[in-house]
């Protein structure tokens, strides 16, 4: 890997796609509600970029709004496969060049296909910015267009942990 930071890699990719991104520093948060509060946005505008492994060893990105989780049956149907899984943090880093908690499809070392939950449409969202302690704000519709993402219902409401 070069010495370019993950955030610089993400910003360079966004610029090459004509996507306006604002990077903000943010302290660590212990919950989605705390993270959203620190960023001054609704929890649903915090979008997780999840790396999902296909059975053939390739990957896809799933863009999941805060307060929701991947619906495996829905995502398998949209991707057109029978089996998907979450890779280990080491495999996710190898697949994207980003550590968990910093992952974004922008600037990934491999441009895997992107599947965005339909609920992010029409909003300004915050994603991982390629480095810890930073978030990247952008318009979801511009992100979807820039990445040629497939938009579908791929999530379910998160079940609160007891």
Helix content: 25-40%
Q: Quick one: overall form?
A: globular
CATH topology: YbaK protein
CATH architecture: Alpha-Beta Complex
Low-confidence sequence ranges: none
Strand order of the largest sheet: 5-2-3-6-9
Strand content: 25-35%
Helix count equals 5
Brief description of this entry?
The protein has 162 residues and is an alpha+beta fold. It has helices at 6-16, 32-39, 72-79, 89-96, 140-147; strands at residues 22-25, 47-54, 59-65, 68-70, 84-85, 114-117, 124-128, 134-139, 150-152, 155-157.
Please supply descriptive tags for the structure shown above:
10 strands; globular; 5 helices; 3-stranded antiparallel sheet; single chain; alpha+beta; YbaK protein; 5-stranded mixed sheet; 27% helix; 162 residues
Describe the structure.
The protein is 27% helix and 28% strand. The chain is α+β, with helices and mostly antiparallel strands. The protein has one domain: YbaK/aminoacyl-tRNA synthetase-associated domain (YbaK protein, Alpha-Beta Complex), CATH 3.90.960.10. The strands form three sheets. A five-stranded mixed beta sheet has the order 5-2-3-6-9. A hairpin with a 4-residue loop joins β2 and β3. The mean pLDDT is 95.
